[in-house]
Specification:
Blueprint (H helix, E strand, L loop, with lengths): L12 H4 L4 H32 L10 H13 L8 H35 L6 H32 L5 E2 L2 E2 L3 H28 L8 H7 L7 H25 L7 H10 L31 H9 L5 H4 L2 H4 L6 H29 L2 H12 L13 H6 L5 H5 L6 H15 L5 H13 L30 E4 L1 H6 L1 H17 L3 E2 L10 H5 L3 H17 L4 E4 L2 H10 L8 E4 H11 L10 E5 L13 H8 L4 E3 L29 H11 L4 E4 L2 H13 L7 E4 H9 L14
Parallel strand pairs: 3-4, 3-5, 5-6, 7-8, 7-9, 9-10
Antiparallel strand pairs: 1-2
Helix pairs in contact: 2-8, 2-13, 3-9, 4-5, 5-6, 6-7, 6-8, 9-10, 10-13, 13-14, 20-28, 24-25, 26-27
């Protein structure tokens, strides 16, 4: 039985070609060496650019977890396959090419290593038949994937493959698809011509080549042999050209994407690296490209422009300036403008190591285009449009970290240049002076609890849980109702808890995410001093923003606690039977997943478990739910800023609830409660729809009367 190869190798050489084996192999090896040299040189040049700029950052801890990430995201295509059409399309190409390359190497190993040395073959018998079938099958997979990709990019033209209606196709996109398609098609033609001439009885296992061989019926065998030689060399040159082209095209993501997964941030999702040394820093945040870490810059080169981040970005979809994809690509363009000069400067300085070298370095650096990173490369509108919802990071199939970059650039504007929106300046002053965004006197923080008999930790520090109420739960009228409802649930269940009362301060989340890291650290350290002074171990928060800060950011300042969200506690009380829901609550309910509860902390099931236990209600899901939930628009300090461009994000989310005919929107976040309630008013649905926190719904289902909270003392 003749051996068979699909790919660069010896396909039918014994039958067709009158070329001495050494001459053939020498020529093939020379071409292969040239292709590898071109690829290697391209990677080396890119390597110089990668290491030319950026501050150091440790991304080599926990190698086992990093390898696991690569296996999950690359070899299992975990994130890629979450989006069916492009996921299947990419998987067909990826898995197909992976098998073909492995098979080609396997076949080449037999022809060029095993046979010459040992005079035996393993591509024979049933093994060969299965091998032939798999190579044809996966080659067909690649071809189907390429067709799907071309149809999607050039016919369907989805919005996310462009920006504001303009496709971002490049010549390189078309060249890559044509190159891959041509490699597969010429491979099938080579196989078909061999089968046509030799006509072995078993070759229907190579089903694509076998079927295609029938199209050559009537062609003289001598002509077919010549066509075979020509097509084989075309196939070989295309394959080697593919290898050489990798570092000079979007194919580079074959290298950068696995690397970016490997270097992923292993810290808890949504946590932000604090500024460690305020006293000695000359500037804060990131105002220049060089002030990003090397990983933040490498992120930009790993971006494949797939647009998954843009596809769910509330800022982009509501008509704002921000597109996470465009922001990353603009940083990449800026890097490609500056990095070559930085490479030359380093080379000149290293070569001369003297005044002459320094002069050359200065001259090289002076040719770098001078653009302000914040304001020109990334516009101020883009910078402040972000809600920190983290949809972009959750769904990025290359593990790009968008949100920390945005916060770092905000830090520069706020702390170094003191340039940010007046309403945000007022919010920060209020947090600084009265430890809450509204600026209400901090002595009123515990007034909501006066009629409930709740102890403070000053009165009883031995309680099991600290109920961290937060600013909204202490000062906002709607937020206070939630605090009352949850406190009554805890009391009914016999949970041991207390509050800090007037000793409690703002969690600082809005300060941190608007870029005022100095204020955040002051607020956090004040809270930690009080909590540690009382020996607090367990904390319950009703605000996902406070919950996330307490859980993930406070440990940076010796504030290490077990932190729970109130939906986790309520779900646990229901499961243990400590509270029972006996009253029917009728209506059509939907649930809005808070970004900081869902994507940041993966709390999706507990709120739904609670709602499913409420008798009488009909529960429906909005189209955008779970990790694809649409932001309410209040995160990233946007709660305190006006939306002056495009549609209001909270109105868009409210309309999504209206589309499923819900009369109640259940929430688990005071920011979301405010935004959805405002959206109901703006959409003139106050007679037909209401927004309630899950704690309020549970209190109703428990049959407990609501306690009227104190009069509101702040603007909502």
């Amino acid at each position: 039985m003749k051996t068979h190869e699909f790919g660069i190798g010896m396909e039918g050489r014994e039958v067709f070609w009158n070329i001495p084996l050494p001459s053939f192999e020498i020529l093939l090896f020379i071409l292969t060496a040239i292709a590898l040299a071109i690829m290697g040189y391209g990677i080396y040049r890119r390597w110089l650019l990668w290491k030319a700029m950026g501050k150091p950052e440790m991304r080599l801890d926990d190698i086992q977890a990093r390898v696991k990430m690569v296996l999950s995201e690359i070899f299992l295509q975990k994130k890629v396959l979450k989006d069916p059409y492009p996921g299947i399309m990419h998987a067909l190409i990826f898995f197909g090419f992976f098998v073909l390359i492995f098979g080609a190497a396997f076949d080449a190993g037999q022809h060029h290593i095993t046979e010459p040395l040992f005079s035996w073959t393993f591509l024979k018998g049933n093994f060969y038949l299965v091998f032939s079938f798999l190579m044809d099958l996966f080659g067909l997979f690649v071809l189907i994937g390429v067709i799907l990709a071309a149809y999607r990019r050039y016919v369907q033209k989805p919005e996310r493959l462009g920006y504001k209606g303009t496709p971002d196709n490049t010549n390189d996109d078309g060249i890559v698809l044509l190159l891959i398609g041509a490699i597969i098609i010429t491979g099938f033609i080579v196989e078909a011509l061999r089968i046509y001439v030799t006509n072995p009885p078993w070759e229907y296992w190579s089903f694509v080549g076998w079927l295609l061989s029938h199209t050559f019926s009537g062609v003289a065998h001598d002509t077919a042999r010549i066509l075979h030689q020509v097509s084989w060399w075309i196939h070989a040159v295309l394959g080697l050209g593919f290898i050489a082209y990798i570092p000079y095209s979007r194919l580079l993501h074959i290298i950068t994407t696995p690397a970016n997964h490997f270097f992923s941030d292993l810290k808890p999702a949504g946590s932000l690296e604090p500024i460690r040394d305020f006293e000695n820093a000359e500037a804060f945040g990131v105002g220049k490209l060089e002030e990003f870490t090397w990983k933040q810059i490498f992120d930009a080169d790993a971006c494949t422009r797939c647009g998954r981040c843009q596809d769910g970005c509330p800022a982009y979809l509501s008509g704002k300036h921000l597109s996470p994809k465009k922001l990353v690509q603009d940083i990449k363009t800026h890097w490609l403008e500056k990095a070559p000069a930085a490479v030359k400067a380093k080379a000149a300085a290293g070569a001369a190591q003297g005044s002459e070298g320094a002069g050359e370095a200065t001259e090289a650096a002076s040719t770098t285009p001078e653009k302000a990173l914040v304001g020109e490369v990334v516009s101020l509108h883009e910078l402040w449009d972000c809600t920190n919802c983290m949809y972009c990071m959750e769904h990025c199939s290359a593990s790009i970290e968008h949100v920390p970059k945005i916060v770092n650039m905000r830090q520069y504007k706020v702390l170094t240049e003191a340039d940010f929106a007046p309403e945000l300046q007022l919010t920060c002053r209020n947090m600084e002076n009265n430890s809450n965004p509204w600026g209400v006197g901090s002595h009123l923080r515990a007034d909501w609890a006066k009629e409930l008999g709740i102890q403070t930790l000053a009165e009883n520090p031995a309680v099991e849980y600290l109920f961290y109420v937060g600013c909204s739960g202490s000062f906002d009228d709607r937020g206070k109702k939630v605090s009352v409802a949850f406190a009554k649930i805890l009391q009914a269940a016999g949970v041991s808890f207390g509050i800090l009362g007037n000793e409690e301060g703002c969690c600082g989340d809005s300060a941190m995410r608007c870029g005022n890291e100095y204020l955040f650290q002051a607020l956090a350290q004040a809270n930690i001093a009080v909590m540690n002074g009382y020996g607090v171990k367990k904390i319950i928060a009703i605000c996902p923003h406070g919950y996330n800060a307490l859980k993930k950011d406070y440990p940076n300042f010796e504030g290490v606690y077990e932190v729970y969200h109130h939906t986790e506690i309520i779900a646990g009380l229901l499961a243990s039977g400590k509270i029972k829901l006996t009253n029917s609550v009728s209506g059509v309910f939907t649930y809005h997943d808070s970004c900081f509860l869902g994507r940041y902390n993966e709390i999706y099931e507990q709120p739904r478990q609670i709602l499913s236990a409420v008798p009488g209600m009909k529960f429906v899901e909005m189209d955008r739910n779970l990790n694809k939930s649409f932001c309410c628009g209040a995160g990233g300090a946007r709660m305190w800023m006006e939306e002056d461009v495009g549609e209001r994000i909270n109105n868009m989310r409210t309309k999504q609830a209206m589309e499923v005919n819900a009369d109640t929107v259940a929430v688990a976040c005071p920011f979301c409660l405010t935004m959805i309630s405002d959206g109901i008013k703006d959409n003139q649905m106050t007679e037909k729809m209401v927004s309630l926190d899950i704690a309020e719904i549970v209190v109703k289902a428990m049959g407990m009367e609501e306690t009227k909270p104190a009069v509101d003392v702040c603007a909502t």
